[in-house]
């Protein structure tokens, strides 16, 4: 095999994998089809573009995404380095300036002497040491070649959607207000309250609004963690009030009472000149988005900087095909990283890319691979992808349910999760000398 590694795709997973290899002295060829060709979900030429929300989810060690991010930070993740440098206020979550985040990573990649970026689409898996991080929108001849790699089309799919973004200057703050749920942390969210009459009228229009045609789409094929708002509305009149429009813990300063429903907006950049509508993923036609979402109090004259879109996400049925190191079983010089493996989410995708980069470098340097235990979030992701035994393998966000349970009984959910995180980080500390020993 060649002494270089070819990384296919410069999204979150591919960028992280390329970086981990490069800082260990490994020569990398990073293939990226943008900006020559853009997928339906991509808008900017930068690497590691965030195509859906600008949130990396919870920041606390009492939730699994927070633990995963801390594990990645300690392992020297480029994605986490950029997230911390481009963080925007978001209460208990970690949100980032969308463009600043991607620009930071693009600059780092382009300026590393061990990385050569090659622009253009590939139609087949290249020879040699390869990390495939082409993402859930992989299609065409390359998609078919992945099927051939596994002896047939071994890929599955679901549908994913992104929320609209509006300009701050167009939000009517005489109707909206700043607040955080239960007054926790800073008041980082803009809240648009609705009374019962407004909510019912909104839901009625949302249910019947005209959708953009998406080939093969059915309501049942959506990913539950990123469900279009109109699909939620069709599941029941109160579904939204228990989902993204939940009013619990929000007090309208004008009335002193909790609204019947509330729509929240979160800053999408550091300047807070752009806000995304939280939880409002959609595949309505653009004019319908303008019409229906303008019914939200405070957004009646909203300027939409980006409308919501929907796209098909494809992933490998990985158990039995990939091992816990994300390597193709029987062809260990080929690795897969990112959402195409069946991990779900920005951080999870980057984490898989980080693991691939670290362990591909170990293989190239003829050293023992880093085997992250399932007591850690990193190890739990690898185990889910490789060892899942259920009937229907589906994309999975990191969660405490797939991390090893404690040997002791701890009273209280928050206390238990804190203990799981503490154990995970203690376990990780014993591995860090091996993880970081090759970094130049």
Structure description:
There is one protein chain. This protein folds into two domains: 4-157 and 314-436, FAD/NAD(P)-binding domain (3-Layer(bba) Sandwich), CATH 3.50.50; 165-308, Beta Barrel (Elongation Factor Tu (Ef-tu), domain 3). With 440 residues, the protein is of the alpha+beta class. It is globular, with a radius of gyration of 22 Å. Helix 2 (64-74) packs parallel to helix 9 and helix 2 packs parallel to helix 11. The mean pLDDT is 90. It has a six-stranded mixed β-sheet with strand order 6-2-1-7-17-16, with helices on one face. Strands 10-11-12-13-9-14 form a six-stranded antiparallel β-sheet. It has helices at 12-22, 64-74, 78-85, 98-110, 140-149, 196-208, 229-234, 286-293, 346-364, 377-387, 413-436, and strands at 4-8, 27-32, 55-58, 87-88, 93-96, 115-119, 129-132, 155-161, 165-167, 177-179, 189-194, 261-267, 274-277, 304-306, 310-316, 327-328, 331-336.
Q: What are the salient characteristics of this protein?
A:
440 residues; single chain; globular; 18% strand; alpha+beta; six-stranded antiparallel beta sheet; Elongation Factor Tu (Ef-tu), domain 3; FAD/NAD(P)-binding domain
Q: How large a portion of the residues is in β-strands, by DSSP E?
A: 15-25%
Distance between the termini: 23 Å
- The structural domain count equals 2
Global morphology: globular
Rounded to the nearest angstrom, the radius of gyration is 22 Å
Q: What is the CATH architecture term of the largest domain?
A: 3-Layer(bba) Sandwich
Q: What is CATH's topology name of the largest domain?
A: FAD/NAD(P)-binding domain
Could you report the average pLDDT, rounded to the nearest whole number?
90
